[in-house]
Amino acid sequence: MTAREVVDLDRTDAMRLLASVDHGRVVFTDKALPAIRPVNHLVDDGRVIVRTRLTAKVATAVRFSADAGEVVAYQADNLDPQRRVGWSVVITGLAKIVDDPPQIARYAQLLRPWVNKVMDTVIAIEPQIVTGMRIVADE
């Protein structure tokens, strides 16, 4: 069996890998407990952008956090279970509702929902902490 090694990623590499996939998991607080939801995303100007419904739990948490934003985490990965290699990135930062109409319209074009529901809310996550790791096979 080939040995594996874990390599830490710097912020630049972690954000580049995050931008290379279109989905991940947003982690937020619901009733004082952690909640996780799979969502699709894009990375734009260093922020992670997701679209959701105004009535979704994540939107509710962010909407009621006032102007300061809601602390959330976002995780994405690309793992190959056969080769047992891949990467994972986690960002932690402040999530805020995007309220600029031109930005909302732009993200509506760029970020298509996977489900047949109206996604009327755009959330931008500004990364404060970015961590990542890559599992590589020793040569």
Structure described in brief:
The protein is α+β, with helices and mostly antiparallel strands. Helices cover 19% and strands 51% of the residues. The chain contains three helices and eight strands; from the N terminus they run βαββββαββαβ.
Write the layout of secondary structure elements.
Blueprint: E1 4-8, H1 11-19, E2 23-30, E3 33-40, E4 42-44, E5 47-52, H2 57-63, E6 70-80, E7 85-97, H3 101-110, E8 121-137
Structure in words:
- This protein has a single domain, classed as Electron Transport, Fmn-binding Protein, Chain A (Pnp Oxidase, Chain A).
- The chain contains three helices and eight strands.
- Strands 1, 2, 3, 4, 5, 6, 7 and 8 form an eight-stranded antiparallel beta sheet that branches.
- β2 and β3 form a beta hairpin.
- The termini are close together.
Supply database-style keywords.
139 residues; elongated; Pnp Oxidase, Chain A; 8 strands; 3 helices; eight-stranded antiparallel sheet; alpha+beta
Percentage of residues in strands: over 45%
Model regions low in confidence, pLDDT < 50 over at least 5 residues? none
CATH architecture: Roll
Assign the structural class, choosing from mainly alpha, mainly beta, alpha/beta, alpha+beta, or little secondary structure: alpha+beta
Total DSSP E strands: 8
From the 3D structure, determine the CATH topology: Pnp Oxidase, Chain A
